[in-house]
């Protein structure tokens, strides 16, 4: 039997993308095992979704640590305990620092709600809507030390409708299908390479 890649999902908010990943894993559409949810906002709705999915939860507030390095060292310790091989950022609103970047080189994947390099950082959907562009989309990319600057894995275009609420809905709907599909592709290729 092939060992499934062990992934840790990082999220800060409602956890709709976490839920989508968990659902895809449960249905066998994403060949992976979620070994940990890391949340930097203790009590965020995503933590309850993880518990219902029987995924271990690590809730840590950066403010409780003397430095970002100490915060990430605590996360890294738990990731190692759980055997995590990949970090999947699904609405995690923090830059990843050197501690985790060094521990997981080319093994950290982020989902961003724009067609990078356009609209990196926060409020990407709102900024795209206000830009006058006719389309935006989502980008899945590897994480480096910059703000949404890592190598792009794949992108999906989404037309900009008449209202911001419609656009947010279209982006989230697209994310929930596209992100797990791209993860399946990347993890499958990397697993096959490792085993050959």
Put the structure in a nutshell.
With 196 residues, the protein is an alpha/beta fold. The protein contains 6 helices and 7 strands. The chain has one domain: Rossmann fold (3-Layer(aba) Sandwich).
Please tag this protein with its features:
seven-stranded mixed β-sheet; 40% helix; 196 residues; alpha/beta
Strand content: 15-25%
The amount of helix comes to 40-55%
Major beta sheet summary: 7 strands, mixed
Rg calc: 16 Å
Q: What is the CATH T-level topology?
A: Rossmann fold
Which CATH architecture would you pick? 3-Layer(aba) Sandwich
CATH superfamily: Formyl transferase, N-terminal domain
Shape: globular
Distance between the termini: 14 Å
Question: What is the average of the pLDDT values?
Answer: 95
DSSP E strands, number: 7
Order of helices and strands: EHEHEHEHEHEEH
Decide which structural class fits the backbone.
alpha/beta
pLDDT below 50 for ≥5 consecutive residues: which ranges? Answer: none
Question: What's the helix count?
Answer: 6
* CATH class category label: Alpha Beta
């Amino acid at each position: 039997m092939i060992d499934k890649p062990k992934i840790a999902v990082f999220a800060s908010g409602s956890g709709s993308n976490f839920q989508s990943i968990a659902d895809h894993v449960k249905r066998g559409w994403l060949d992976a095992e979620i070994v940990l949810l890391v949340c930097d906002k203790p009590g965020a709705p995503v933590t309850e979704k993880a518990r219902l999915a029987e995924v271990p939860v690590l809730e840590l507030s950066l403010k409780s640590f003397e430095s970002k390095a100490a915060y990430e060292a605590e996360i890294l310790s738990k990731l190692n305990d759980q055997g995590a091989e990949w970090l999947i950022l699904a609405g995690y609103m923090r830059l990843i620092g050197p501690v985790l970047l060094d521990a997981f080189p080319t093994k950290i994947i982020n989902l961003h709600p724009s067609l990078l390099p356009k609209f990196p950082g926060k409020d990407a959907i709102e900024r795209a809507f206000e830009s006058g562009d006719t389309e935006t989309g989502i980008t899945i990319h590897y994480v480096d030390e910059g703000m949404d600057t890592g190598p792009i894995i794949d992108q999906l275009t989404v037309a900009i409708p008449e209202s911001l609420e419609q656009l947010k809905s279209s982006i989230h709907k697209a994310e929930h299908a596209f992100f797990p599909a791209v993860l399946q592709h990347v993890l499958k290729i990397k697993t096959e390479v490792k085993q050959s």
